[in-house]
Amino acid sequence: MRRQHRLDSRPVRCAYASQPTSRPHCQLSAVVRYGPIALCADCDARRSTLGKGITPHQLPPQPPLDVLDWIASADAAVHQAHTELAAAVARARARQHS
After folding, report:
1. What is the pLDDT of residues 58-97, one digit of tens each?
2. Residue 4 has pLDDT above 70, yes or no
3. 33 — phi, psi (to 5°)?
4. What is residue 58's three-state secondary structure?
5. Whole-angstrom Cα distance, residue 1 to residue 78?
6. First to last CA, the chain
7. How far apart are CA 83 and CA 12, in angstroms?
8. Residue environment code for 81-90, b if the CB has 16+ CB neighbours within 10 A, otherwise e
9. Torsional class of 67: left (φ above 0), alpha (ψ -120 to 50), beta (otherwise)
């Protein structure tokens, strides 16, 4: 079953959210942005040179990242990637590519 998303309340994910091994204490939801890099409070406190010389921009308060929504989004992306791959392979074969 797919969970519904409210686009206006979707939290910004921390740049390190996808690295649970190297950043086990990441809080997942970003609170500050350094240029294109968004960080949660914990990762912001642990950063060394990331964002050095860039003015940080505080992000507005947002709900915490729902990991089940994250799983649903990742699953949808995997299914879309499989569909795209199958279409590309079919088109390549139709043009006599191996």
Report:
1. 999 988 899 999 999 999 999 999 999 999 999 999 999 9
2. no
3. -130, 130
4. strand
5. 16
6. 37
7. 27
8. eeeeeeeeee
9. alpha
**What's the CA gap between 98 and 95, in Å, rounded?**
9
Cβ of 70: how many Cβ atoms within 10 Å?
A: 15
Q: Are 13 and 28 in contact, with CB atoms under 8 Å apart?
A: yes
Q: Global pTM?
A: 0.71
Amino acid occupying residue 73: S
Contacts of residues 46-49 at CB distance under 8 Å and 24 or more positions apart, as own/partner, are none
Predicted confidence (pLDDT) per residue in 17-62, tens digit = 999 999 999 999 999 999 999 999 999 999 988 878 899 999 999 8
